[in-house]
Amino acid sequence: MADHAPDTDIPRIAISGWTKTLQAFAAKISRFPAAMPTMLCAFSDSLTPPRQIVIAGDPARSDTRAMLREVNQHYLPNTVILLADGGNRQKEMAGMLPFLEGIKPLRGRATAYVCQNYVCQAPTTDFAACRKILRAPPETL
Known about the structure:
The protein has helices at 12-31, 35-47, 62-72, 88-96, 127-135; strands at residues 51-56, 79-84, 111-116, 119-120.
């Protein structure tokens, strides 16, 4: 843990970089303090790799809507949430995000695919399993 700030999982280099950034912008921040929350959000985002959540299912079905509600009730900073409905929109998105081509509901049920740092959890149709994955602390850099 010598390469981490005391009592944190934050790498020292991240703290050092952000300290220098805050010092460089201190005058502007003092004139426009409303910018500080945005800078803190950027700092927070820089500490964890982004997470992607894809819900595969028909948006007209109740299980898909319920899975989306489950995902949306969690605070998930630095997370992209997509709906893969198997239709034209998914095909269009797959042109830019090729991994979406193979995303589909399992056994005809709404399915959550949760990925972070280019590694995906096993897809799940179980709400409790999805909740457990989402509540786990995100991996730090």
